[in-house]
Amino acid sequence: MSRASIEIRDVSHVYKTQSGPLPVLDNLSINVPKNAFTAVVGPSGCGKSTLTRLIAGLLTPDIGSVWLFGEKVEQPRATVGMAFQNPVLLEWRNILQNVILPLEIVGSSLTANQRKERARHLLALVGLEDFEDKRPSELSGGMRQRASLCRALIHKPEVLILDEPFGALDAFTREDLWQVMHALRKEEPFTGLLITHDLRESVFLSDQVIVLSGRPASTQYILDIPNKGERSLDDLYSPDTIQMLNVLRHQIKVAQDRD
To answer: How confident is the model at residue 107 (pLDDT cuts 50, 70, 90)?
Structure first.
C-alpha cells in the first residue's frame, strides 16, 4: 500500500484548441506523502493549474492516472478543498455564512449549531473571530483570503489545493498569511498542494518543492526542504534558504529556456 496521499502517475494531457492540439503535461509523476505540504513551481503556462483540476477530479487525464489515498480519481471528490487567488466570497452572505457554504453544498451530518461552531473555530484560528457578521466588501483583501482558507477547510478535507492564493496580496499581508498557513497545518492536519510563482513562499511553506519543466510539463527537479514544520520568517534569510532559492531560480531558468 502506497504511503502517498496524492499520486500523479505518468500523466499526459492535451487541450484541443481552434489552432490544434496544445500539449500541457507530458508523462508527469508526483507523489505527496500523507499530511505533507508540496509546492509546485514552474514557468507561466506550464500546466500548474491543470494539475490542480486533475487532482480535484474536474479533469480526466488523457494518459496516466491520478490517485488520492489509494483510490483513482475519476470525478470531483468532497474530500478535496480548494482555495484560489480570488476568494470569490458571496456578498449577500456574511463571513460566517460564506465559510459554512461548502457544508450546505456537499451535505453534512452536523447540526446548524455545530456548523457554526466549526466555522467560528476556524475563523478564530486565522484571527477573524470578530468579523463573522461582516460582509466581504467590509474586509481587506488579506482578511477575505483568510475567510477563503476557512471555507476550504470547513469540511475537514483530506487534501487542500491552493492555487496561488496569496499572489494578489501585498508583501506584508502575504508573509502574515504564510504564518497563518503554518498555524492551520498544526491545528487542522491535511495534505497540501500549493501552486505558486513565489519561490520564497514555496520554500517557507512546503516540505518539498517540485519544479515543472516548460510546456508540456514534466517533473524537472524536486527540492527537499530540510526544515519541516512551522518556521520563522527569519528563516527566509538563513544561508540554507538562500542556497535553496538560488537552486530554484536556476531550475526555473532552465525550464523557461525549454519552453
So the answer is: confident
CA–CA gap between residue 249 and residue 1 (Å, rounded): 35
Question: What does pTM read for this prediction?
Answer: 0.90
Backbone angles phi, psi at 33, to 5 degrees: -65, 160
Phi-psi region of 76 (alpha: psi -120 to 50; beta: other; left: phi over 0): beta
- Domain-wise residue ranges, the chain: 1-79+159-259, 83-156
Specify the DSSP element, H or E, that contains 25.
strand 20-33
pLDDT of residue 3: 61
Q: Give the three cell numbers for residue 44.
A: 507561466
Question: Beta strand 80-84 with 208-212: parallel, antiparallel or unpaired?
Answer: unpaired
The C-alpha atoms of residue 95 and residue 147 are separated, in whole angstroms, by 7
How long a stretch of residues is the chain? 259
Find out if CATH 3.40.50.300 is the number for domain 1-79+159-259: yes
- Distance, in Å, from the CA atom of 165 to the CA atom of 144, rounded to the nearest integer, reads 11
Q: What is the structure's pLDDT at 77?
A: 84
pLDDT band at 259 (very low <50, low <70, confident <90, very high): very low
> Which are the contacts of 129, defined by CB distance < 8 A and separation ≥ 6?
120, 123
